[in-house]
């Protein structure tokens, strides 16, 4: 993801450079128009504007620097009361399609906002026996825990794969902050489904759906659906978004 972020920074700098060059060209064309042939200068300016517009549209809407596209992302967080703290079980299922050849590693950024004592954080486990999950030994400066899933094979362009992982966490030292969201980070996603699940009788008084921009304070409200699963005796709060925007996270607060 560090490499991918660098690609986006390079694209941003490139577009900024093109804009600066166009400003200089515009000034030159304006001067030329007054001093020479105004009609010819107008035609050249129109051609330059259309060309830049086409490049900008391709970069912002169609260019995909990431090595894969997320066809769907579903995250479920089960929140259970245990003594005087809570136990959280997070399951993450990602359906992806490779956009480049030789895709073997899938990276994830996970975060627990509370604090757990020794033995209270379970390892990240793959639900697919052909995959192997790895986690960094410590958090980064933003309190994010980086994890990777080795697919066990090489995924080529156009091929699809389903990645499923699960992890548990107990906030016996410091309570988790009361929100749950997820995002496809820098990859383009077609659909995101975030489920926050409570046992019946333990659900909060109020649960609201929200959209976070770059994982900062929640912004606009997002539709949240409450669903009771009589079979498992759980209550689900579901936020579902088609064609989610990059840098946006979707989920709930309670």
Notes on the structure:
The chain is α+β, with helices and mostly antiparallel strands. It folds into 2 domains: 61 residues; 186 residues, Immunoglobulin-like (Sandwich), CATH 2.60.40. It has a 7-stranded mixed sheet, with no helix packed on it. Strands 8-14-10-11 form a 4-stranded antiparallel sheet, with no helix packed on it. A 3-stranded antiparallel sheet has the order 3-6-5, with no helix packed on it. A hairpin with a 4-residue loop joins β12 and β13. The protein is elongated and about 85 Å long. The N terminus is likely disordered.
Number of helices: 2
Quick one: biggest sheet? 7 strands, mixed
Order of helices and strands: HHEEEEEEEEEEEEEE
Sheet with most strands: strand arrangement: 4-7-2-1-9-13-12
Any idea of the CATH class of the largest domain? Mainly Beta
DSSP E strands, number: 14
Beginning-to-end CA distance, first to last residue? 30 Å
CATH topology call of the largest domain = Immunoglobulin-like
**What is the CATH architecture annotation of the largest domain?**
Sandwich
In which range does the helix fraction lie? 10-25%
The general outline is elongated
Helix/strand class: alpha+beta
How many domains make up the 3D coordinates?
A: 2
Task: Report low-confidence residues grouped into runs of 5 or more.
Answer: 1-8
| Rg estimate, integer Å | 23 Å
What is the beta-strand fraction?
35-45%
- What's the mean pLDDT score? 82
